[in-house]
Write a structure and sequence with these properties.
single chain, 137 residues, eight-stranded antiparallel β-sheet, globular, disordered C terminus
């Protein structure tokens, strides 16, 4: 398994990518969770979430196309490592659900992700601290 996370490019929340093992033919499944409204080290609940499902090596992609179809019920972060120069790695644990499907780009196929639970890692650095804000409670 592969897990990487960082602040979302917009600075509003975090993005966590979780991928299964890479097969010999170059295929694997990857889930990407974009959780809005949460910053470095913060916990939160009822957070709007975008979910993307990629079938790598098959050129297939499904996305909820916005953060109005999935919700992260609860998320917590705990610092596990300081990297110096105001950089740190956090363990993130999240649980949530989706009320709408993820569609392929042509809207001809859909995948339903009813619920999700994951634990992973998110790395924050100096450049991220002023952008990502803690989630309101």
């Amino acid at each position: 398994m592969q897990c990487d996370g960082a602040p979302r490019p917009s600075g509003n929340g975090v993005r966590v990518s979780i991928a299964g093992p890479l097969r010999g033919d170059g295929r694997r499944i990857r889930l990407v969770f974009g959780i809005g409204g949460i910053g470095e080290g913060a916990s939160g609940s009822t957070l709007r979430t975008n979910v993307t499902l990629l079938f790598e090596g098959e050129n297939r992609l499904f996305a909820t196309l916005g953060d109005d179809k999935c919700t992260t019920d609860s998320v917590s972060q705990s610092r596990v490592e300081s990297l110096g120069d105001h950089r740190a790695i956090y363990r993130i644990v999240a649980r949530g659900f989706c009320i709408g499907p993820a569609s392929n780009p042509t809207h001809t196929e859909r995948v339903v992700i009813t619920s999700f639970d994951f634990a992973g890692r998110v790395e924050f650095g100096d450049d991220d601290r002023h952008e990502a804000q803690p989630a309101p409670h």
